[in-house]
């Protein structure tokens, strides 16, 4: 990406981080909880810690850049939409870490493990409170839109877009779990999971919200927006799966090999099994789904993948989908502002290169 775009991205991120912190400073006062409850403020504290701990805020950037496709002037409603997108993301992280039994997130303890440590003798309470913490984040993500100081029609349209995105994400989580019951899902199934589980709420919905806030009607361009979001979502899921085995644990803030230990039919696992010989397949399948397998066993699988060229092949696939997404965005030049079209054109390849 150009330096100008990178500086604009950094500005979106910095401004939002301050906004998010301010939001959590005040959200408790507007929550109708009984005065005796100690668990409610503790839940908000955990949501705050997870939300403010990090993350690239790419959804916020997409939201603002989508509005800039239409205008470079101030746009009402973007702050509420940004808070909503990141609260929905917090909801997803809380539930993801419970589903995956993940101890860490963004370099700190997951919400689930925080509750496990808090209630070591009450595992059901730890699970229940984790579910409810994620549910509360979802409710807050919709509430912040309902309270946005924008015209009623715009408010309703934004709530509808975000509600659809949330529902699609839940379906994505369901088919993600269902995928792992299949013996060998084909690539179309993996692409569908990526679309529902991440693309629709992480890419499509922020773009729709930004366009709506700027006075555009995204429904007029739904086919191409969905195509762009799907392609970028596939790249993102490929990148996540790639990093799960071939990434650096310290950089990611979570251990590698999680998908292998959980027996997930990820893009990486599919690429591995398609590349190995019979002896290597036995090595991979011996650890696939073994929650207790050692770091050395994961390292051995990683070495097999590297020897068979799996990382290079996956990067090539990511670049192919990224180029297709860039071509979709390039077609927007006749309709929308050049500087933000350039952002959406450059984003897919930039995201993929960071995986290298």
From TrEMBL:
Gene Ontology biological process terms, A to Z: isoprenoid biosynthetic process
Key words, A-Z: Isoprene biosynthesis, Magnesium, Metal-binding, Transferase
Origin superkingdom: Bacteria
Necessary cofactors: Mg(2+)
CDD domains: Trans_IPPS_HT
InterPro entries noted in UniProt: Isoprenoid_synthase_dom_sf, Polyprenyl_synt, Polyprenyl_synt_CS
Pfam families attached to this UniProt entry: polyprenyl_synt
A GO term, aspect molecular function: prenyltransferase activity
Assigned protein family: Belongs to the FPP/GGPP synthase family.
Full protein name: Polyprenyl synthetase
Source organism per UniProt: Streptomyces subrutilus
Classification lineage: Bacteria, Bacillati, Actinomycetota, Actinomycetes, Kitasatosporales
